[in-house]
Amino acid sequence: MKNQIANGLQENSKQTIQEINRIEQFLLLPKHQYDFDNIQSDTTDDDMVAWGFEGLHTIRPKLEKTCKNPKEILGDELYNRFIDIEKQYA
After folding, report:
1. How far, in Å, CA of 90 to CA of 17, rounded?
2. What angle do CA 58, 61, 67 make, to 5 degrees?
3. What is the mean pLDDT of the chain?
4. Is the pLDDT of residue 22 over 90?
5. What is the pLDDT confidence band of residue 11, given thresholds at 50, 70 and 90?
6. 3-state secondary structure 18-77
7. CA 61 to each of CA 19, 24, 40, 41, 77: distance values in angstroms, whole numbers, following the listed order
8. Which of 15, 35, 17 is nearest to 25 (CA)?
9. Residue with the larger pLDDT of the pair 77 and 55
10. Whole-angstrom Cα distance, residue 19 to residue 14?
């Protein structure tokens, strides 16, 4: 089980880097080396004052999956519809 989790995390990290590379290429930005285990935020927004919600724009120090599988939330039909749309533009 631990190996499956580790492999899944490595695959997510690989996909994240691929997506970041695609965004950089689309925006014609130079390639950058990111440290997803040490994210630092320099924002000073007060979400409670501005929006009435605490932590609305909180940036976590490490990029990691924190939500359920989209299929669980959207269901098979809607999830597959989005996958088909994504394939058209990939």
Report:
1. 16
2. 70
3. 81
4. yes
5. low
6. HHHHHHHHHCCCCCCCCCCCCCCCCCCCCHHHHHCCCCCCCCCCCCCCCCCCHHHHHCHH
7. 19, 22, 6, 8, 34
8. 17
9. 77
10. 9
The pair of three-digit structure tokens given for residue 53, joined into one six-digit string: 């919600």
Other CB atoms within a 10 A radius of the CB of residue 90 amount to 6
pLDDT at 67 over 60: yes
Q: Would you list the domain boundaries of the chain? A: 1-34, 35-90
- Degrees to nearest 5, angle at CA 13 with 10 and 16: 155
Position 20: which residue type?
A: I
